[in-house]
Amino acid sequence: MPDIFDDWPDIPVPPPPALFEPRLRERMNRALTAEQFVDGVVRGMGSALIEFTAGLVGGALWSIERRRADPIPAAKRQPPVTNT
User: At a CB cut-off of 8 Å and minimum separation 6, what does 17 contact?
Assistant: First the structure.
């Protein structure tokens, strides 16, 4: 039985098709676009959902407490400046 590896140097290799590179780029572009879309939906929508939920929770707490949370406590607040 002949060894196939002995025949390989003698077998002619055809040149690549003329549309090889454009077809490869087209397939890669489709794959990359789909991957970026899925990544954006998974990460972007997840982050947006977290931010939206934080706003809803803040609004619900504000509605329940009937007052707005004061960012500066009264003890640290400085008196207003008056021009005399």
Answer: 23
